[in-house]
Amino acid sequence: MRSCCHEVLARRVRQAGQTGVRSERAETTAIRPDLHPECANLDMHVDSARVRRPTRRARLASMSADPFDTRSVDPNSVDPSNADPNGGDERRQPPKPLVVLIHGEGQMPTSWQSQVEALADDFQLAAPWIRGLRPGAKDDFDMARAASDLMMLPISHGVRSMHVVGLSLGGTIALRIALEQPDLVDRLVLVNTHPEPSSMQLKVQAAALKMMSRRRLAAQGINKDAAQAVLKSMAADRVGDRLGEIQADTLVIASAGDRNRSDAATRLATTIPGATMELLAGGQLLNSDNPDGLNDLLVRFLKP
C-alpha cells in the first residue's frame, strides 16, 4: 500500500528525472529575504506564470505583513497585550481574522501562493516553514516543537485565535495544535491528512525513502534526513485516539478517486465532532493540483 508521504516523495523524484534542476528562474517574483536565521540563505521565489490575477498580486505586494515571512516567533519577545484585537483602543478597528497555512512534506511556504491570493481580501495570512524541514535547516524535525512554534502566531498577529489549514503532514501538525490549545483554533481544515499512519505504512515509507538518492530528493527541495525524522516523529506522535476531543469547526478535504485518502478522510470526518467532508479532483497536493477547487472550499468555509 502506497502511503501519502511516499506518493509525494515518489512524485517529486519523477519530476526531478523529467525536468532536472532549473538553474535559472526567468519568470519569478522574489519573496522577502529577511527571514528567521534558519532561512536566511534560502532563495524563495513565486512563479509569476502561476499568478493569474494581477490585481490580487498587486495587493499582496502592498500587504503590511508578508504571508511568507517565515521567521519563528520567540516566546520571550512576544508582548501578550498584542492579543487584544483593538490594541487597547476601542475606536481602533479590529484586525482581520488570521489564517495559518501549513505546508505538506516536500512542499514550501510558497506552495500556498494561490490560496494566499484567494484569501488576501478577508484575512491576515501566515504560511511559515515547518521548523526542521527547510533544506539546509540545522534543527531536526519534531512534531511537538513544530506545533508549539505555530501556537505563537495569534499573539504576533494581534488576535486571540486563528483558523488553521494543513495539508498532509501540515494537517497532522494542525490536529496537534487543535488538541493541545483548543481555544486557539476557531476553524480547522485538514487536506489529505492521515490521522495516524499504521506501523506498516510507516515501514513502507521508510523503506521507499531509504532507496531514494539524496541528490534527486534535494533537486526537489526534500532533505532526506528531515524526511526520515518526520517518519520517526509520526511513529511516536499518535493522535488518532484523541480525535473526539477536537472542538474546532472542522472541514476535511480529500482527493476523489483515491481510496487511501478518502478512507482516512472518512475516519476524520466521522470521529471529529461536527466535522464535514468534501472530495476534490486532484492528487495529493491539492493546493497546487486543484487550486481553484480548494480555494472555493476554503473561502466558503472560512469567510465570516
From TrEMBL:
SUPFAM superfamilies: alpha/beta-Hydrolases (SSF53474). Residues 15-34, 53-95 are annotated as: Disordered. One of its GO terms (molecular function) is hydrolase activity. This is AB hydrolase-1 domain-containing protein. Residues 97-242 form the AB hydrolase-1 domain. Transmembrane segments: none annotated. Pfam families: Abhydrolase_1. Keywords: Hydrolase. Residues 22-34 have a biased composition (Basic and acidic residues). The keyword Hydrolase applies. It comes from Parenemella sanctibonifatiensis. Residues 73-84 have a biased composition (Polar residues). One of its GO terms (cellular component) is membrane. The keyword Hydrolase applies.
